[in-house]
Amino acid sequence: MSKMLEIIGLVLVAIMSLGFVGALQSIGIPIGAQNPYFWGCAGVTLMIIVYRKRKRKQTEQE
After folding, report:
1. How far apart are CA 36 and CA 2, in angstroms?
2. Which of 19, 30, 51, 56 has the most CB within a 10 Å radius?
3. Where does residue 10 rank: exposed (0-12), middle (13-18), buried (19+ CB within 10 A)?
4. Residue range of the domain that includes 5
5. What distance in Å separates the CA atoms of residue 33 and residue 15, rounded to the nearest whole number?
6. What's the pLDDT score for residue 36?
7. What are the DSSP calls for 19-61, one per residue?
8. Which residues of the chain have pLDDT under 70?
9. Residue 24 vs residues 10, 13, 52, 57, 60: alpha-carbon distances, Å
């Protein structure tokens, strides 16, 4: 599960970065931080980081 979350997070960060610099503009993703894909990817990546941190903390307590 953790490897899958790492891969998903990496893909989301890549999409976020490429969308920010405008490399994905040819397929309809707008450029810059105003596009919803940028903030969606950033939010989901943050949720993955928080989830993994909580899971790691739970396993250390047990």
Report:
1. 26
2. 19
3. exposed
4. 1-61
5. 12
6. 85
7. HHHTTTGGGTPPSSTTSHHHHHHHHHHHHHHHHHHHHHHHHHH
8. none
9. 17, 13, 29, 37, 41
Scanning the structure block, which residue is given the tokens 């790492």?
A: 6
Number of domains the chain is built from: 1
Task: In whole angstroms, give the CA distance from residue 15 to residue 28.
Answer: 13
- pTM exceeding the 0.85 threshold for the entire prediction: no
Using the CB atoms, write b or e for 19-55: b if 16+ within 10 Å: bbeeebeeeebeeeeebebbeebeeebeeeeeeeeee
pLDDT score for 19 = 84
Rg of the chain in Å (alpha carbons): 14
Beta carbons of 3 and 52 less than 8 angstroms apart: no
